[in-house]
Amino acid sequence: MTQAEFDRQLAAVGNPSLTWLGHSAFILRLGGRVILTDPFLGETAGPLGFGPKRYVRAPMTGAGLPKADVLLVSHNHYDHLDAPTIEAYPHKEHTQVIVPLGLGAFFTKRGYRKVQEQDWWDVWTSGDLRIETLPAIHHSGRGIGDHRKTLWASFGITTAEGKVWFSGDTANGEIFEEIGRRAGPFDLALVAIGAYTPRSLMKSVHVTPEEAIDVVRRLGASSTIGMHWGAIALTPENPFDAPTRFKRAAEAQGFCAGNAVTLRIGESRNLNSATLGLIDGEHRA
User: Fold this and answer.
1) Which residues are in the Metallo-beta-lactamase domain (predicted)?
2) pLDDT tens digits for range 141-156
3) Checking CA distances to 183, which of 76, 122, 123, 161 falls within 20 to 30 Å?
């Protein structure tokens, strides 16, 4: 699909809707606003072209991203904070950037004018749009000497149409009951389900697909989409096992399997304006 064809697809989807750009990158259209999440669209997850390489091409480039009202970045790992994408994005003066503590300078140095750093539980509002920066169980760092120097987070996104939780990267833990009580319940959870082996290393930073369903249930989310899989190999498991395990886990844990889905990279889906659940039918790249 060409950039022009993909642009036409984006123009055809309604509000509310979402488009998965692969990994943790989404275009969300909610309450008449456009929100971008963790737009990693580069070829490698690392500095200067080094690092794990993408094996499924992104459906668009940073320069082709639509003008967004808000850009959310959960933490500074290379597969979430992608310098080439951030630099190529053409609407720097107009988009409100919301990031965890310590990441603001990354954007202001690259020409972004509206940048808000937030601690966990901090809230930014604009009209009926509310962005709450929420805890996650993870870490940060892009090189030697900066481990945990900046914060990591998940986000709660609220409009008049409902609430969406974006997980960023996270391990499992008791914090999700508190998030559910204080910021939920959520209509839709966008939850990471990939990069979970070996467990001896990944247990403290990434959930398994089964744990992802457990997290979603404890948040009180009504439906969920699995992300952070199928674009780049960060860990040695078969990357295409994650969606199957995610669906099976939903069935095993009594979470309606029809409300736990994965998308194709480049796929756009309209959402139910009353529940933010996925509407049958799809637009595919």
Assistant:
1) 33-229
2) 999 899 999 999 999 9
3) 76
Report helix angle 209-219 to 175-183, nearest 10: 40
Question: Over the stretch 162-213, which tens digit does the pLDDT of each residue have?
Answer: 999 999 999 999 999 999 999 999 999 999 999 999 999 999 999 999 999 9
CATH number of 3-270: 3.60.15.10
Per the structure block, which two tokens stand in for 206?
């990434």
What counts of helices (H) and strands (E) characterise the chain?
A: 7, 14
Burial class, 103, CB count within 10 angstroms (exposed 0-12 / middle 13-18 / buried 19+): buried
Cα 36–chain centre separation:
8
> Using CA atoms, how far apart are residues 35 and 90, in angstroms rounded to an integer?
15
3 state SS of 133: strand
- Burial 26-46, CB ≥16 within 10 A → b, else e: bbbbbbebbbbbbbbbbebbe
Q: How far apart are CA 42 and CA 40, in angstroms?
A: 6
> Cβ atoms within 10 A of the Cβ of 168, count?
26
Would you say 268 and 15 are in contact if contact means Cβ atoms under 8 Å apart? no
Query: Which position has the token pair 């029809």?
Result: 258
User: CA of 63: how far to CAs of 41, 47, 49, 50, in Å?
Assistant: 10, 19, 18, 21
Is there a contact between 285 and 6 (Cβ–Cβ < 8 Å)?
yes
**Does a cis peptide bond (omega within 30 degrees of 0) precede residue 66?**
no
Domain layout of the chain by residue ranges: 3-270
Q: What is the pTM of this model?
A: 0.96
Cβ–Cβ < 8 Å for 57, 91:
no
pLDDT above 70 coverage of the chain, percent: 97
pLDDT digits 0-9 by tens, 245-255: 999 999 999 99
Q: What angle do CA 208, 263, 131 make, to 5 degrees?
A: 75
